From TrEMBL, chain A:
GO terms for biological process: spliceosomal complex assembly. Keywords: mRNA processing, mRNA splicing, Nucleus, Repeat, Spliceosome. It is found in: Nucleus. Belongs to the SF3B1 family. GO terms for molecular function: mRNA binding. It comes from Cymbomonas tetramitiformis. Residues 180-189, 334-344 have a biased composition (Polar residues). The keyword Nucleotide-binding does not apply. The lineage of its organism: Eukaryota, Viridiplantae, Chlorophyta, Pyramimonadophyceae, Pyramimonadales. The keyword Repeat applies. Residues 277-306 have a biased composition (Low complexity). Residues 147-347 are annotated as: Disordered. Residues 160-176 have a biased composition (Basic and acidic residues). GO terms for cellular component: spliceosomal complex. This is Splicing factor 3B subunit 1.
UniProtKB/TrEMBL annotation, chain B:
It comes from the Eukaryota. GO terms for cellular component: precatalytic spliceosome; U2 snRNP. GO terms for biological process: mRNA splicing, via spliceosome. This is Splicing factor subunit. Belongs to the SF3B5 family.
């Protein structure tokens, strides 16, 4: 009895809560309905692509998104994004972690998951004259469906509009009537709740919507996020609730309900209902099947629908006590009765044993259950029923639940017997009224759904299912948990004989796909080949029915998608015309690739669609995509337009023109016109200048769009013209003649987005014009609107205006005077403001435009306007000014800068340089360098001031400042020389010398760099401090491990060794030699190269003997890189000091019985002969005995290196009469041709190639002829390989040397021409 | 063969060479090789004017005729291929 009371109490409480909630939360019930049907479900999304969209969407999507979010001055995030990070980013490019595609997709792209993989369609071409089967979807059917869908959407919109109007009217009335009564209060009266609460809810919602609505266009992402919090999920997934669901069970959790929802939804406490609001969204209306729309779908029995849809909605919408009994509270009996009804709903193909599982899967996520149910209603019920639609989370939940269940199982009689003493206790009969509560409601996790029977079930009933062990079948790759829903059926052991032929085929395909998706490369390769080879046997239907749902999986990763797309690509070739019925299906899956952010995905998508159109033909492609052209969903239209452009590029524009014309002139819907014009835009973007032959017809097709009644059509038309003009540039102005007038009229008629698009079009068309026209039209457009639009606050408009200005100003006919007088004042007033420097894209655009203007009007004009701003208080702004000045001076020089401006300029850059706090991109430094170098000798008066600043800043506390100062020295050193300020430089040298004790390696590196630049311009003799003091100071710095320090230091030391070695005693150089050996370990190639060169300089300065001794000793070290560098250094020493100074010692070293040393010597010889080239002819006889020995050595590496030496030698002395020695060496080389080690055989083959050059092909051919027809195939193969490279290298040279073959029967083999003799 | 060998030039060399007409392989027979040799020789004669004029002089033909003959001979330089033994 207690329990009943408790329940009653709990129910009452919950009911009260619900009522409160209804009142508080604004009557969700009302919201859902209107929401699904009447509100514009695409609000928050751009209904057309942004005006400034240049190429493919997504190229700059990220930056764009960030730019939009940027509402204030704090822009650090995206500046941080742009920080140059060296090579780090590129380094790990190849080892990207596998990333799920769905994770990085934005809301707009996620909409791909909402599309239906449409059932196969009729192949009209294959049918011939036959009437299509009633069950097959024909083109007419699809069009009819689309029509219905569109009409429905329209109706819903109009209803929404009506309601809106009504509501407003009502509200006005109620406001006037009694403004003191808060609408929320009305929710407290249960009976009146619905009618009154709804408007109040609507109102709130609207207000809320409007709140974001203002910014909605700017920040769709944010909005979408908030929307989903608002339990507004149906909005985000418009298609889900629709009845014609797709056969991708897995995607449910991917989109509508984030995974974490599941956790919350599962526990059946009353309070959860609010979290559970989602199912309410699927109102009966949403689920009501319109039978005509579900070909092949399973119609739910009447018993099923109300239970799944009506109940949750009802329990929330009308919180009356009568209906308060939600399904949470249902007793087992009820549940039991519900079970069959649910099972009825599942597709008929489901087996009883497995039946429990999909149901359980659905039951765990009540929030989305209706979706799940509808998602399971696929055209091919048999497949899905077989699969186990369980997400990993569900598996875990299930396992956990079973475990808990097991521990908390009811005690059996035996248990009780063992626990209690035998005596003193009586076993009572349970009362009649007692029903053991084993309702699922009491379970921790499970919802009281018809999961299994109400009776207790042994957990381990199904021994096949091992939950913790990753599922794996022999011979197949490992399955990830998320693969279970697609490949789970493979786990089911079953005899092949039991399965029908179709099922066997299906399993076969499934196995192959699993191998492709998860297998090792060899597995993948063979599976791919099998799929390709057997594609026609499998048939298009079974293949695509399995591949396409996989591609829609929300857990798909990039690599997997790539592989699956590859599968499609391959089987497309094989299937050819068989794909026709599946074209639309494939397009639905592939089209999203066209707007993927990954470039390669876009390319792949294009390739597939192009192959598809070649396989299916134009007619089929058009028939497949025609219904999507006027789809209400903008996403569908966008992707379709892109797909069409690919078709156009695959099959040629002319074949598509008639269709495009018809679409662009569609009277029925503006969407069709919009898409048609968009197709042209995409064609222009995709094909570039290849549109030129068809330019006129393309323009003619869409020119009427400029005066279309619909604003979106006008916009896209202007954008398409811009794209066409850009693609055609610099040709094709005559094709645009007809649109000039409407464009010009348009810019004075339109405002906002449309105007932006029109301006963009004009901006691209003007540069195509003749000078005269360009000048006229530029004036026109400036006067009419451009200058006015300078003042705009719209960011997009700003960017477009800047771009247009850049384009028109750069055009030939535009006069500098005109720009100066008419444009510049407005331009600077409007754009040169601090705010522009904060957004990266604005910044870049403004700098580019200003530089372009400067190219027209001259440097001084621009510099004088901005120079004052170098002292602006905003650093980003100063940086922008500096960059502009830098680029301008770089382009235009400083010829027209007068002394006054010069002063201001120097003053400004000094100020800007000193005030900089963070300059990662070196704008200030570069700017300073460019300005100073541009001014050249005119800098002289300012040099003392500049040097003073530098000196002062070298002493600064901040390391960054010191580094900048030192870097600046290296930039101005050349100018100081030009101004003959040697004394000043000497002074700076001394100062720098004093700072060589610097602790920060970055700064020290810069200081060394500065010293180097001074030494470079001032020369060794005049350098202060004198070289003999400077160098000993550098020796210890060589020990520094920092790369920047090493590089700058070795450069400086090398420079001194090269130019001023005599200033330093030989002993010091020897000391440096030892230090240099360490530098050979450096990671950076530049450092190692500089080091090796320095060895050469030092050897030249102090003679090779000592250096050589050091280097030869170094050959004994273990480290390979070190030895290799040493050998190079030896070769360089030999080159700089003539080989004869080095060879004796080197050859002597070969006698050391140590592998490394001998190889080192051989390698040195190899480099040496490579460097000295034809000088080698004097030494070839000297080293031949050594090489003989090496070529006969047992060690492979000996022979390999010796072969490389012979190659270099042979190439060096070709034609210099050393054939005797070379032939001798070749006799040693030749036996090595059968080596199998790749390096050795490579070296040997190259040596033989070298011989071909130096001793001639005939000689080598004679060696080769011995084995061409050898009885052993292995021998023949090697010889033919040599013959082939000989033949390719000197085909003509072989002609005289070919053997004389005797005639044989009727075949003449003799070459009689060669026997002619005069 | 190691995994790394698969990607070096050596492994691809034969494949690369096989793309050219006139290269041989281990199963080439005398006739095929001779055909290649003859065609190469004719091409070489035609390419070197000195050779052409020498032949013309020796055969007492015009240079053009000699060139024409040589090019005609390239069709079947060693007449028809011998019957293949089936054993």
């Amino acid at each position: 009895m207690d329990i009943d009371d408790e329940i009653a109490q709990a129910q009452a409480e919950r009911q009260q809560k619900e009522e409160e909630m209804v009142a508080l939360g604004g009557a969700q019930s009302g919201v859902f309905d209107t929401n699904l049907y009447t509100s514009n479900k695409f609000e928050g999304f751009d209904s057309s692509i942004a005006v400034d969209e240049e190429g493919d969407a997504g190229q700059d999507e990220r930056a764009e998104g960030m730019a939009r979010k940027l509402a204030s001055y704090t822009a650090p995030k995206q500046i941080l994004e742009d920080l140059p990070r060296g090579d780090v980013v590129e380094d790990d490019l190849g080892f990207k972690k596998p990333s799920r595609i769905a994770d990085r997709e934005d809301e707009y792209r996620k909409r791909r998951l909402a599309r239906m993989i449409s059932p196969a369609r009729n192949d009209a071409l294959a049918m011939g004259d036959k009437t299509p089967d009633v069950n097959v979807r024909t083109y007419a059917d699809v069009m009819k469906e689309r029509e219905l869908e569109n009409q429905r959407a329209m109706t819903m919109r109009s209803i929404e509009a009506q309601k809106e109007a009504q509501k407003q009217a009502e509200q006005q009335r109620s406001d006037a009537y009694d403004s003191s009564v808060p609408t929320r209060a009305s929710g407290l009266q249960p009976q009146a709740a619905e009618p009154v609460a709804k408007p109040s809810g609507e109102k709130r919602r609207n207000r809320w919507d409007q709140g974001t609505g203002g910014e909605a266009e700017a920040e769709p992402a944010k909005k979408a996020k908030v929307m989903s919090q608002w339990a507004d999920i149906p909005d985000a997934t418009p298609k889900q609730s629709r009845w014609d669901a797709t056969p991708t069970p897995g995607r449910i959790d991917g989109e509508a309900t984030p995974a974490r929802r599941n956790r919350w939804d599962e526990t059946p406490t009353p309070g959860r209902l609010d979290g559970d609001a989602t199912p309410g969204g699927v109102t009966p209306g949403g689920m009501t099947p319109t039978p005509g729309m579900t070909p092949g779908g399973v119609t739910p029995t009447p018993g099923a629908t109300p239970r799944w849809d009506a109940t949750p909605t009802g329990s929330m919408a009308t919180p009356t006590p009568r209906k308060g009994r939600s399904r949470w509270d249902e007793t087992p009996a009820t549940v039991g009765s519900a079970t069959p009804s649910h099972v009825e709903q599942t597709p008929g193909g489901m087996t009883p044993g497995l039946g429990a599982t999909p149901v359980a899967g659905a039951a765990y996520t009540p929030g989305i259950t209706p979706f799940g149910a509808s998602a399971m209603e696929t055209p091919t019920p048999g497949q899905i029923a077989g699969r186990v639609p369980m997400t990993p989370e569900q598996y875990n939940a299930m396992r956990w639940e079973r475990e808990i269940e097991d521990r908390n199982r009811p005690l059996t009689d035996e248990d009780l017997d063992s626990m209690f003493p035998k005596e003193g206790y009586v076993i009572l009969e349970p009362p009649q009224s007692y029903i053991p509560i084993r309702t699922p409601a009491r379970r921790l996790l499970a919802t009281p759904t018809p999961m299994g029977t109400p009776l207790y079930q042994m957990p381990e009933e199904d021994r096949q299912q091992t939950f913790d062990v990753p599922a794996q079948i022999e011979g197949l790759p490992e399955m990830k948990p998320e693969d279970m829903q697609y490949f789970g059926v493979l786990l089911k052991e079953s005899e092949d004989e039991e399965l029908s032929a179709d099922e066997q085929k299906e399993r076969k395909i499934m196995k192959l796909l699993l191998k492709v998706k998860n297998g090792t490369p060899p597995q993948r390769k063979s599976a791919l080949r099998q799929l390709t080879d057997k594609a026609r046997d499998f048939g298009a239907g079974p293949l695509f029915n399995q591949i396409l749902p996989l591609l829609m999986s929300p857990t798909l990763e990039d690599q997997e998608r790539h592989l699956l797309v590859k599968v499609i690509d391959r089987i497309l070739y094989k299937l050819d015309e068989l794909v026709r019925p599946y074209v639309h299906k494939i397009l639905v899956v592939i089209e999203p690739l066209l707007i993927d952010e990954d470039y390669y995905a876009r390319v792949e998508g294009r390739e597939i669609i192009s192959n598809l159109s070649k396989a299916a033909g134009l007619a089929v492609m058009i028939a497949a995509m025609r219904p999507d052209i006027d789809n209400v969903d903008e996403y569908v239209r966008n992707t379709t337009a892109r797909a069409f452009s690919v078709v156009a590029s695959a099959l040629g524009i002319p074949s598509l023109l008639p269709f495009l014309k018809a679409v662009c002139q569609s009277k029925k819907s503006w969407q069709a016109r919009h898409t048609g014009i968009k197709i042209i835009q995409q064609i222009a973007i995709l094909m570039g200048c290849a549109v030129l032959p068809h330019l006129r017809s393309l323009v003619e097709i869409m020119e009427h769009g400029l005066v279309d009644e619909n604003q979106k059509v006008r916009t896209i038309c202007a954008l398409s013209l811009a794209a066409l003009a850009e693609a055609a540039s610099p040709y094709g102005i005559e094709s645009f003649d007809t649109v000039l007038k409407p464009l010009w009229r348009g810019i004075s008629q339109h405002r906002g987005k449309v105007l932006a698009a029109f301006l963009k079009a004009i901006g691209f068309i003007i540069p195509l014009m003749d000078a005269m026209y360009a000048s006229y039209y530029t004036r026109e457009v400036m006067q009419r609107s451009l200058i006015r639009e300078f003042q705009t606050h719209d960011e997009e408009m700003k960017k477009i205006v800047l771009k247009v200005v850049k384009q028109v100003v750069g055009t030939d006919g535009v006069e500098p005077d005109y720009v100066k007088t008419e444009v510049l004042p407005h331009f600077f007033q409007a754009f040169w403001v601090r705010r522009m420097a904060l957004d990266r894209r604005n910044y870049r655009q403004l700098v580019e435009t200003t530089v372009e203007i400067a190219n027209k009007v001259g440097c001084a004009e621009i510099a004088s306007r901005v120079v004052e701003d170098l002292k602006d208080e905003s650093e980003p702004y100063r940086r922008m000014v500096m960059e502009t000045i830098e680029k301008t001076i770089q382009n235009m020089g400083t010829g027209d800068i007068d002394p006054r401006l010069e002063e201001l300029l120097i003053d400004g850059i000094l100020y800007a340089f000193q005030e900089q706090t963070s300059d990662d991109s070196n704008v200030m430094l570069n700017g300073f360098g460019v300005v100073v170098n541009g001014l050249g000798i005119r800098t002289k008066p300012y040099l003392p001031q500049i040097c003073g600043t530098i000196k002062f800043r070298l002493n600064n506390k901040s390391a960054k400042v010191r580094q900048q100062a030192a870097d600046l020295i290296s930039r101005v050193a050349v100018v100081m020389m030009t101004c003959q300020e040697e004394q000043l430089m000497g002074h700076l040298g001394v100062v720098l010398y004093e700072y060589l004790g610097e602790e920060y390696p970055e700064v020290l590196g810069s200081i060394l760099g500065a010293l180097k630049s001074i030494v470079n311009v001032i020369g060794m003799t005049k350098m202060t401090p004198p070289i003999k003091d400077l160098l000993p100071r550098l020796t210890p710095i060589l020990k520094n491990r920092h790369e920047k320090v090493q590089e700058n230091c070795i450069d400086l030391v090398g420079r001194i060794a090269d130019r001023g070695a005599e200033f330093v005693p030989a002993r010091e150089w020897m000391r440096i030699c030892f230090e240099l050996l360490e530098l050979l370990k450096a990671h950076k190639k530049g450092i190692r190269r500089a080091t090796v060169n320095t060895f050469g300089y030092i050897a030249r300065a102090i003679g090779p003997q000592d250096v050589l001794a050091t280097l030869l000793n170094n050959l004994k070290v273990q480290e390979r890189q070190n030895r290799v560098c040493t050998t190079v250094a030896i070769a360089i020493v030999a080159e700089t000091c003539s080989p004869f100074t080095v060879l004796p010692a080197l050859m002597n070293e070969y006698r050391v019985p140590e592998l490394n040393v001998q190889n080192g010597v051989l390698k040195s010889l190899s480099f040496l002969f490579e460097y000295i080239g034809e000088m080698g002819k004097d030494y070839i006889y000297a080293v031949t005995p050594l090489l003989e020995d090496a070529l006969m050595d047992r060690d492979l590496v000996h022979r390999q290196t010796a072969a490389a030496t012979v190659k270099h030698m042979a190439l060096g002395v070709a034609g210099l009469g050393c054939e005797d020695a070379l032939v001798h060496l070749m006799n040693f080389i030749w036996p090595n041709i059968f080596e199998t080690s790749p390096h050795v055989i490579n070296a040997v083959m190259e040596a033989i190639e070298g011989m071909r050059i130096s001793v001639g092909p005939s000689a080598v051919l004679n060696y080769t002829l011995q084995g061409l027809f050898h009885p052993a195939r292995k021998v023949r193969e090697v010889y033919w390989k040599i013959y082939n490279s000989l033949y390719i290298g000197s085909q003509d040279g072989l002609v005289p040397a070919y053997p004389d073959i005797e005639n044989e029967g009727m075949n003449t083999y003799k070459r009689y021409e060669l026997e002619l003799f005069i | 063969m190691q995994a790394s060998d698969r990607f070096n030039i050596n492994s691809q060399l034969e494949h690369l060479q096989a793309k050219y007409v006139g290269t041989g392989h281990a199963d080439l027979n005398r006739f095929e090789w001779a055909v290649n040799i003859h065609r190469d020789s004719y091409a070489s004669y035609v390419g070197h004017h000195g050779m052409l004029s020498y032949f013309a002089l020796a055969e007492n033909e015009s240079i053009g005729r000699v060139r024409y003959n040589l090019m005609q001979k390239m069709l079947l330089p060693c007449s028809l291929p011998p019957e293949k033994d089936e054993d």
